Amino acid sequence: MSTAETEQSLRDEIARLKIQLDSKSDATPAPPPDALPLSSSPSHALLLLSDSALPLGSFAFSSGLESYLAHHPSRSPPPIQPFLSLALQTLATTTLPYLLAAYRDPIRLQELDDTLDACILCHVTRRASTAQGRALLTVWERAFCNTVEPGNEEREILAALSAELKKASLPKTSSVDVGDGETTVWGHFAPIWAVVTRALDVPMGDSAHVFLLNHAKAVLSAAVRASVLGPYQAQAVLGSGWLREEMARLLRENWEVKIDEAGQGVPAMDLWVGRHELLYSRIFNS
């Protein structure tokens, strides 16, 4: 190849590269990472509801663990798995049917709330349920409500329940103390959780699963503070296949259970929770 041909080949290559650079500069620039479109999946709401920092006051309750430990004195703390299994079974047999019923038919929220209050025998359990339910309703009104369209059915149902709670201004103990025989609202945790998750487009299965998981997290958190096990051991239990299988089993067994068939599956749990207030010293509310 002659020198002239070599120079011409270089000029042609330079021209070709210049055309490519010009075409690149005319192209629309890629959006920055924070401007990329995000899918409207329910994962974000589900993560928020499963966050331990959600201000529901769960840290104040041990779900009977403190009383259980006091009634099983020993030099070494008992294993946590047997109690955790009983606590989850209690929640699944007594409360989960109300959650599923409220999710399937949210218009029955106030009816289910009143029925659940009448069916909870232990006043300590009732107090914990209404405290967390009202806390969740407050979180909904102050944080999540504006993320849902104004005409949303669940939003209107929750607003009506909140209005009734404010109008009633009743004590948070039991409907039997009212004495007038009228139906009242109490703000129990499970049915409110169901309607809130439905409003946020969380599938019913995920709603029930996270409800059980949050309860397990609360019990294990109380166990850490009660020096039953360490924080790494608690995380090991949360991440174990045993816990996943246990929750899956409870969901399967109670998925079609009606509220008329709901009942305490672990009678001793009511005794442990009910005797919590009789302890000489305690660090939890239940």
What does this protein structure show overall?
With 286 residues, this protein is mostly helical. It starts with a helix and ends in a 12-residue tail after the last helix. The longest helix is centred in the N-terminal third of the chain and has 24 residues. The relative contact order is 0.19. It contains 13 helices and no strands.
Number of helices, where a helix is a run of at least 4 consecutive DSSP H or I residues: 13
Distance between the termini: 93 Å
Shape: elongated
Instruction: Detail the poorly predicted runs.
Output: 27-40, 175-179
| Mean of residue pLDDT values | 81
Determine the fraction of residues in helical runs and give it as a percent range. 55-70%
Number of strands: 0
Biggest beta sheet attributes = none
Computed over alpha carbons, the radius of gyration is: 27 Å
Strand content: under 5%
Order of helices and strands: HHHHHHHHHHHHH
Secondary-structure-derived class: mainly alpha
